From TrEMBL, chain A:
<dbReference type="InterPro" id="IPR010226">
    <property type="entry name" value="NADH_quinone_OxRdtase_chainI"/>
</dbReference>
<feature type="binding site">
    <location>
        <position position="73"/>
    </location>
    <ligand>
        <name>[4Fe-4S] cluster 1</name>
    </ligand>
</feature>
<keyword id="KW-0677">Repeat</keyword>
<dbReference type="InterPro" id="IPR017896">
    <property type="entry name" value="4Fe4S_Fe-S-bd"/>
</dbReference>
<comment type="similarity">
    <text>Belongs to the complex I 23 kDa subunit family.</text>
</comment>
<keyword id="KW-0479">Metal-binding</keyword>
<keyword id="KW-0520">NAD</keyword>
<keyword id="KW-0874">Quinone</keyword>
<feature type="domain" description="4Fe-4S ferredoxin-type">
    <location>
        <begin position="110"/>
        <end position="139"/>
    </location>
</feature>
From TrEMBL, chain B:
<feature type="transmembrane region" description="Helical">
    <location>
        <begin position="12"/>
        <end position="31"/>
    </location>
</feature>
<feature type="transmembrane region" description="Helical">
    <location>
        <begin position="241"/>
        <end position="264"/>
    </location>
</feature>
<feature type="transmembrane region" description="Helical">
    <location>
        <begin position="164"/>
        <end position="186"/>
    </location>
</feature>
<dbReference type="InterPro" id="IPR018086">
    <property type="entry name" value="NADH_UbQ_OxRdtase_su1_CS"/>
</dbReference>
<dbReference type="Pfam" id="PF00146">
    <property type="entry name" value="NADHdh"/>
</dbReference>
<keyword id="KW-0812">Transmembrane</keyword>
<comment type="similarity">
    <text>Belongs to the complex I subunit 1 family.</text>
</comment>
<protein>
    <recommendedName>
        <fullName>NADH-quinone oxidoreductase subunit H</fullName>
        <ecNumber>7.1.1.-</ecNumber>
    </recommendedName>
</protein>
<keyword id="KW-0830">Ubiquinone</keyword>
Length: 172, 374
């Protein structure tokens, strides 16, 4: 029974004289390597040169601030619930009077930690966030760490700096 | 006495220069081998040590010296040390008879740009190359390791098999020149009468045999990694391994120089007379020396090019090619050359020989090789 009509029967007959001499094949092979000798290398010298990974690459996490510089996160915990690797933990705190400039909502995250050894960069925290507070930025990766003390990223490393704001393509 | 001294010093300094050039070329062959491999595979190759990775051989040498110098417990210690030394020694000795240039006159003293002009020049090359296999054989045997021994045995049988065809291809040249001296062979080729024009078939045979003699791909069975780990140098480390690898690159350069000497006119280059008239004899001689080294380096490139193109032969294929392919072909070449010398029509008879050979193969193929019915 034939599943499709695309089957091709390959008949491997006796090799011709030229094929048995191998010399034409050797010359052809050397022409191929010479062609590659003059073609452009595909190497990217990584630490110096970096490849553009696309507009939706899931890299380093960032806790966004709004236009006035107040943190958007309200410590609802939906990102921690959504996280399949259980990498996110947080401690919520009520906003005091006079802190309206710092925190956008009446509740905020006093501690917000992501364990980068657990994180699988799936982006579900970003999907879950109702306040558009956490994002995985496309232009920066989590750097290599050398000791376990550097693995847990706190707010000092996650909160957006106002002088280097993260903007994604398509955002206003 | 004074004259003798100056000749002796000139000779010694010339040999020193040749020695340094050989070592430098061998060291940078490792770098260019990696670069050429990289380019042929669309990569960049070593580029971290210095600009374009130009200091890579230096870094490799430092690495080689820093590594642990290991001698296996049950090995024969003296032979184990002797192996790489012998390889290196024979590799460096071959260059003695290669004429690197015409005579040079400096300060009223004339001397040859050649280590020794002996009248058995080509035989010297063959003798030393045959000795070269002892380095591999002794090293492989002394390691007390079955893979090393297998590699050594392969090297020995391969070198002996291919020396025959190589010698037969040389005989054709000797018939044309009538001398074993490399200097005489080069002088017979001056002004564009290069032997490649008279001996294309002989050159192909010699080239293939040179690949086998240098243990280069596609004939690198003595060190073939897939079957024998590292072949004869499995147990070697540190600079002893370095010597083996270094000897291989020196052999490549020297065999390139020998091929240039025998088939590509040695230090001859187009426009010698013009340069001599314009710049003087000294400049012409030095450019000739550069031409010879350039030809040798071109052969080194071909060695590398072939290495990164062709896969390795199977052992029986290697032996079949040597004994039932190249040796009869070389004998045929000797007969054709003899006919050419006899009729004094060397180019015509040479081309005729190639045509007769191809026609013979086609006829044989048509008459005797069984074919499947289509």
């Amino acid at each position: 029974m034939k599943l499709s009509n695309r089957t091709k029967v390959v008949e491997q007959g006796e090799m011709t004289l030229a094929e048995r001499m191998y010399l034409p094949a050797i010359v052809g092979g050397m022409a191929t390597t010479l062609k590659h000798f003059f073609s452009k290398p595909v190497t990217i010298r990584y630490p110096e040169q970096q490849r553009y990974l696309g507009p939706i690459y899931r890299g380093h996490h960032i806790l966004k601030k709004d236009e006035q510089g107040a943190e958007r996160c309200t410590a609802c915990g939906l990102c921690a619930v959504a996280c399949p690797a259980e990498a996110i933990s947080m401690v919520a705190e009520e906003r005091k009077k006079g802190e309206e400039k710092l925190y956008r909502e009446e509740k905020y995250a006093k501690v917000y930690e992501i364990n980068m050894l657990r994180c699988i960069f799936c982006g579900l925290c970003e999907e879950a966030c109702p306040k558009e507070a956490i994002f995985l930025r496309h232009d920066q990766m989590v750097p290599v760490f050398n000791s376990r003390d550097e693995v847990i990223y706190g707010k000092d490393k996650l909160v957006e700096k106002m002088d280097q704001r993260y903007l994604r393509e398509g955002w206003k | 006495m004074n004259l003798l001294d100056s000749v002796f010093i000139a000779k010694a300094s010339f040999i020193g220069v040749i020695f340094l050039i050989t070592l430098g070329v061998a060291a940078y062959s490792t770098y260019f081998e990696r670069k050429i491999a990289a380019f042929m595979q669309d990569r960049i190759g070593p580029d971290r040590a210095g600009p374009f990775g130009i200091l890579q051989p230096l870094a490799d040498a430092v690495k080689m010296f820093m590594k642990e110098d290991f001698i296996p417990a049950n090995s024969n210690k003296w032979l184990f040390i002797m192996g790489p030394c012998l390889s290196m020694l024979t590799a460096l000795m071959t260059s003695a008879v290669v004429p690197f240039g015409d005579t040079l006159t400096l300060g009223g003293v004339t001397f040859d740009l050649q280590g020794i002009d002996v009248n058995i020049g080509i035989l010297w090359v063959f003798g030393i190359v045959s000795l070269g296999v002892y380095g591999i054989l002794i090293g492989g045997w002394a390691s007390n390791n079955k893979y090393s021994l297998l590699g050594a045995i392969r090297a020995a049988s391969q070198n002996i098999s291919y020396e025959l065809a190589m010698g037969l291809s040389i005989i054709a040249i000797l018939m044309m020149t009538g001398s074993l001296s490399t200097k005489a062979i080069v002088e017979a080729q001056q002004n564009g009468h290069w032997n490649i024009l008279y001996q294309p078939m002989g050159f192909i045979i010699f080239l293939i045999c040179a690949f086998a003699e240098c243990n280069r791909t596609p004939f690198d069975l003595p060190e073939c990694e897939t079957e024998l780990i590292g072949g004869y140098h499995t147990e070697y480390s540190s600079m002893k391994l370095g010597f083996y690898l270094f000897a291989e690159y020196i052999n490549m350069f020297i065999s390139g120089a020998v091929m240039a000497t025998l088939y590509f006119g040695g230090y001859d280059y187009p426009g010698v007379d013009f340069v001599t008239a314009q710049l003087g004899a000294t400049a012409a001689t030095l450019i000739g020396m550069g031409a010879l080294i350039g030809k040798a380096l071109a052969f080194v490139f071909i060695f590398m090019w072939v290495r990164w193109t062709l896969p390795r032969f199977r052992y029986d294929q290697l032996m079949g090619l040597g004994w039932s392919g190249l040796i009869p072909l070389a004998m045929f070449n000797v007969v054709v050359t003899g006919l050419g010398v006899l009729l004094n029509q060397q180019i015509l008879v040479g081309i005729g020989g190639v045509v007769v050979f191809i026609a013979g193969i086609v006829v044989y193929d048509q008459l005797f090789v069984k074919k499947k019915l289509a």
